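Design a sequence for this backbone.
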């Protein structure tokens, strides 16, 4: 099984996703600042994985604290959370994780410091385990929507590497394959960071799931040729009305899907649903360095001085989304109602 991130006695260990698929290298973080750096630099990426990394980073920071009073520990706790908060703005799982760790901290404030430290470590490990269970449940629900055979297109990497394990969109595909469905995955390469060709293809190869990598501009032609029966992607944040922020290029795929009558599904845990954000226009979109666009594997591909844009995510309006697959069941339009109902339901 792929270990995306793990709490160990030596620190939090991450598989370095910037080195895949050619090198399988692991990095160990022993401070919360290092965890913030690995989130920012995309050593770990993908909304649910970022959430669990944030929780483990906070637990690590509190574990390292030399505070002798609860008041001092609280001050440090707030600083640690702030460092983690400043890493990436779009995936709401990061903020969800900070809130959950803060609630845990607040509930423990009369306890001895050593107990608080231990309880926060355990909380972050619980979040890790819950994420895997959520993905498996999403897989069970979502597999029913997958065709019994044929092509399924995905964009970016919403797999084991983007989560604590199993994956959201790839979890749905994995579950469908486990049920005997004969799925062939079309993986968009996902410029500029190449999460599709580097990470999705790597994961699926390991599992023996047939996969074809296409460059992003080939997706329309594949749909036109009848090679794609369904599309499933992950999400970084889902607004209350069902608008979906996901990797840049997702919107293009969704519009093309509509034109070709292909169902476009989103798989994401309830922690990705942000009921406080009414619609997609209010979702902050991360702008990443121009170099990710101008250079490929260190080689310059764009003339010096040319202007470049590099928004890491786009927003797909809810009208293009056939269903949102969560661990608590499948939401359909009108999403304002279905997402609220699932968010309020217990697991
Ligand atoms: O910039 P990234 O690689 O963190 O973006 C990841 C995505 O857009 C994923 O599709 C999303 O986080 C869902 S992961 C289960």
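Sequence:
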């Amino acid at each position: 099984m792929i270990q995306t991130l793990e709490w160990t006695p030596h620190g939090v260990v991450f598989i370095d996703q910037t080195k895949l698929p050619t090198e399988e290298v692991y990095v160990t973080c022993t401070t919360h600042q290092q965890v913030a750096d690995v989130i920012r630099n995309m050593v770990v990426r993908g909304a649910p994985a970022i959430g669990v990394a944030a929780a483990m980073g906070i637990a690590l920071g509190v574990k390292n604290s030399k505070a002798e009073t609860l008041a001092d520990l609280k001050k440090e706790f707030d600083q640690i959370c702030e460092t983690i908060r400043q890493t990436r703005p779009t995936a709401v799982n990061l903020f969800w994780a900070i809130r959950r760790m803060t609630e845990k901290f607040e509930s423990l404030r009369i306890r001895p410091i050593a107990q608080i430290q231990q309880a926060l470590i355990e909380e972050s490990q619980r979040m890790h385990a819950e994420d895997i269970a959520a993905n498996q449940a999403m897989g069970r629900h979502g597999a029913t929507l997958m065709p019994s055979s044929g092509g399924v297109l995905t964009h970016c990497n919403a797999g084991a590497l983007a989560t604590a394990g199993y994956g959201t969109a790839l979890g749905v595909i994995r579950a469908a394959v486990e049920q005997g469905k004969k799925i062939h995955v079309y993986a968009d390469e996902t410029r500029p960071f190449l999460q599709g060709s580097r990470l999705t293809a790597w994961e699926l190869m390991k599992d023996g799931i047939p996969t074809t990598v296409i460059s992003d501009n080939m997706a329309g032609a594949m749909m036109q040729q009848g090679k794609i029966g369904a599309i499933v992607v992950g999400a970084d944040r889902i607004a209350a009305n069902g608008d979906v922020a996901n990797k840049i290029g997702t919107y293009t795929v969704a519009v093309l899907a509509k034109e070709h009558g292909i169902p476009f599904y989103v798989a994401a845990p309830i922690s990705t649903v942000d009921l406080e954000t009414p619609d997609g226009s209010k979702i902050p979109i991360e702008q990443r360095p121009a170099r990710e666009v101008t250079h490929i594997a260190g080689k310059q591909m764009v003339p010096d001085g040319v202007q470049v844009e590099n928004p890491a995510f786009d927003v797909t309006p809810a009208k293009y989304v056939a269903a949102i697959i969560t661990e608590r069941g499948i939401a359909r339009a009108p999403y304002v109602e279905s997402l609220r109902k699932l968010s309020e339901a217990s697991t």
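Residues 45-48, 91, 156, 158, 162-163, 168, 195, 233-236, 246-247, 312 surround MRU (CB under 6 Å).
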